Amino acid sequence: MRFGSVKHAEFEIIKAISECGYNPDRQFSVTLREIKEKGVPEGDKVAEKRFHKAALNIGDTFKNKMESRRKYLPKNHPEYTGDVE
Fold first, then answer.
1. Which end of the chain is less packed: N or C, by CB atoms within 10 Å?
2. CA angle 79–83–85, rounded 5-degree value
3. How far is CA 8 from CA 45, 59, 75, 83, in A?
4. Distances in Å between the alpha carbon of 10 and those of 7, 31, 46, 55, 62?
């Protein structure tokens, strides 16, 4: 299964994240490595670039999601930023 697009790679990464939640015995880093091995044939620079772009996109999405929830943290949390308005 070669990654045909960045969106394809994003789908496979998100699928791996969601499956790790259901199976606590699997480590996400191992699963992500497996996803890369399946979607990036050896020496395929284009598929590798798609995988890395997808991983960055998902990381940005999660960072944005995290930032939008920072204000809901308990007041004693070190990253709490202020009361909910």
1. C
2. 130
3. 16, 16, 39, 39
4. 5, 14, 15, 7, 13
Contact 5, 50 (CB under 8 A): yes
Please report, for the chain, the start and end positions of each structural domain, with discontinuous segments joined by +.
6-72
When computed from its CA atoms, the radius of gyration of the chain, rounded to whole angstroms, is: 16
- Distance, in Å, from the CA atom of 77 to the CA atom of 28, rounded to the nearest integer, reads 25
- What's the rounded Cα separation, in Å, for the pair 15 and 25? 16
End-to-end CA distance of the chain: 47
